[in-house]
Structure formats: C-alpha cells, structure tokens
Known about the structure:
This protein is an alpha+beta fold. The chain has a domain at about 10-100.
Amino acid sequence: MSRPLELERVAPAEWLLPSAEGMRVPGRIFADEETIAGLLEDEEREGGWSALRQVRNVAALPGIVEASLALPDVHPGYGFPIGGVGAFDVRDGVAVVGGVGFDINCGVRMLRTPLRRMDVAPLLDRLGEDLFRTVPAGLGSKGTLRLSIAEIDSVLRDGAAYAVDRSFGSTEDLRFVEEGGRIDGADPAAVSDLAKRRQFGQVGTLGSGNHYLEVQSVEAVLDEEAARVYGLAEGQVVVSIHTGSRALGHQIGQDALKEMAAASAKYGIDVPERELVCAPVESPEGERYLSAVACGANCAFANRQVIAHLVRSSFDRVCGVSERAVETVYDIGHNSARFEEHLVGGEPRRLLVHRKGSTRAFAAGRPESPDAYRSVGHPTFVGGTMGTASYVLRGTQIGMERTFGSGIHGAGRALSRKKAAKRFWGETVIADLAEAGIRVWAHSKRGVAEEAPGAYKDVDRVVAAAVEAGITRAVARLRPMAVVKG
C-alpha cells in the first residue's frame, strides 16, 4: 500500500492536501468531518477507488492553477473526482478528458409554475402518468424528434436555439439558459459520425442512470432576496429536469480517450490515470477536443429545451396551465470545460476551468449571469434524492476567490450503483416513497434501486458544508412530489 495521504484542517469546512509526490499545486477539499473520514477510509483500502488520490493526481497535471479542488459532494469518478474542479492556464495548461467526463454538460433545467402544492396534489397521479408517457426515458430511449446528420450538425452548432426554432419553447427561454444555450467554438467536424448517429433519435429524451424529472414544491425559502429575484415562493410547484448529452456525449468521451492518449505521449505528458489523458490547451488536439465538448454541451442544452416543452404540454393537459405560464428559472450544466476570466494573485487571468460533477456558481455582478439575476448572481441546483430534498443555491464572492466560482451539483453517492442494487429492491423503494407521499414512475426497477435515497449522502449535510465554507448560499429547499426515472 502506498503512503497514506495526510490532510490539514485550515477552516471548519476546508482541508488542505499539501503538495508532494509530483504535485504542482496542493489539493483543497471543502467538506465536513464525516465526509473527510469517509475519504480517508477509501484511501486506506487497497485497490479501492479514492477521491483523495484523484485530487492528488489532478494536482500533478501541467499548468494547473492554485489548487486541485474538491467540493462537499466529492466522491470517486474517472480521472477527476466527481465534485472536482481544476483550472488551467491557457498558455501552458492542458485540456483533460477526465475533467469533463462522458456525460458532457449533464445539467438541470428548473421550470417554475404558477401552481401551489395544494393545487397539484389532487392531480398528482394523472400528472405523473402523463409526464411518464410524454417524456421518453430509459436506457436507449428514443424521442419523436428524428434527425439527419445535417440536422444533428445544426443541433451541435446552435444548441437550445435549434429547438426553439422548431417551436420547442420560445426565445424567452434562451435568456435563462447558461451561455444562452449555445457554447461558442462548437465545430461538428470535431465529432465522429458514430457519435452523431448515436444521437439521431435521442434529442428530447431523459435517459437512465441518475437522470430524472421531478415535480417539486418549495418547502422553505432560505434567502428571501434571491428567491424573489428567481421568482420562487414557499409552496410553489416547480419542475427539475436532470439530463445531459446522452449517447453523443458518451461517444465523444470514448473517442477522446484514444485521441488524447496519443496526444499525451506526443507531448511527453506523464498521465497518472488513464482518464486524465490530455493535450495542451492550444494544441491541435486540445482545440479539437474542446470543440467537440462544446458540441456535446450544445446538444445537452437542446435536449433539455425539448424536454421542457414536453413538460409544459403535460401541465397544460392535466392542470390547465398554459405553456407560457410555465417559465424557465435557469438551465445550468455540471460537466464542462469553459474559458473564463478569474483573478489569480489579484490579476485577471484567462483560464480553462474543468468542472466534473460541479457547476458554475458565479456571484453577483458577473456578466455571464442573466440581466435579471445580475444583482444576486445566477441560481445553481443541487439534486438530492427521490426521498429527501433538493436545493437552490447561489454563488458568493468567497466562492469566486476560493473555487473559481464553482459549486456543488448534488448530494454525492455514498454507495456505488452495484452496491446499491444489492442492498435495495426497486419495488420496495417505490412503495416506501409512496407511503411518504412521493410518487415514482420508472422504466427500470433496478434503476430505482441504484438511485435509492440510501445510496446517497445526506444532502442537507452536504449543502450545510458548502454554506459553512462560504462558497455558496442557500436560497430554497425543495421537496419531491412526483418523480419520473429512466
């Protein structure tokens, strides 16, 4: 067994992994004591997956700036830990496949409705059933929007605007989508034909795994100013759509592993883990990969735009609420690599920020936020579990300085999918949730077992750690009412 990694506590919810063993920068972990104890246990297990080891590995990559970061929902991933952040100088840094992963721009779109919990409760069974029939979900699911190669190329270039142009929602939606629903620099030529063919029928589909559609109510407002700006109030019904770039994004990642492995060797970059293959940001290989990532991100924006339209149609049929009355709060991704400007040593610097299972959490005043949200910063969404809660958060100036404006995206897994499937039965999970007043519609009982509430950390505790660290502020706590799973 290699020598255990040692952590230094520097604040109530912040820990330092000192630079050693080839690390170019230290590691910085924002978490509570319970999470740290679990990370250290994982590290001590021979042959086990270790998020701390991954934090150290990321800290060894060329051009990384300040620190390799892990947020309170951290758990092991491929290459980067999930809940990991790495910012790289554009001149001597690298673009890293494991810093984005295989579900490019997986993210959440939240819709707000004019309805209250008491309005929807009597209609919940009808609404859930209608959503289950209307929104395609499950492994390999296909939607009604079937596209040719030329049309797929348009999706990859134009993102959510492609869907709006085909009457899936309105241009008003685009004001409240990260980057307007379109990442610059997307070149469909950087994406393989195989990746495009895999996406022919998947735009407008939820998929499987941890993806979900939830009808939720605002259980508590925790920041009155920000909630008012976001149009959220206690008792209000909202909808969260969690999905990404589907098969196209996965294939982009698979293709990149091969291409970037060759690039790592070509440029003499020592890669401590297979998924950390990389290339200099400004190299042909790095630029091609980032262009493909932009394509995947745009596809994910289009996917959530189409699903939002389908959700609106269900609310119209079942609840009698016009589609225009169901408005976009925000749409934001949590697997990305973006060029951003941040202060480093008091000076503005252009960086390539990788966020793996982490979301932008920009504070007030940043131009990337919609005009309507500029006074408080844009919202971020933290998915909990089917049986607990989710949160709306916002960024802080401390977060801008300490995490490059990054925030948590979920509770974080406590059990692997394999272990969860052995411990829980899907039918039992659904029955238990029904007793708690939460209705679940699922295409796979095993998928429900893998995503059982007991497979995840306590989302309240994870959010509390992020708030205690000062990197985000809590705006609202949401309670699930109806859940659609793949």
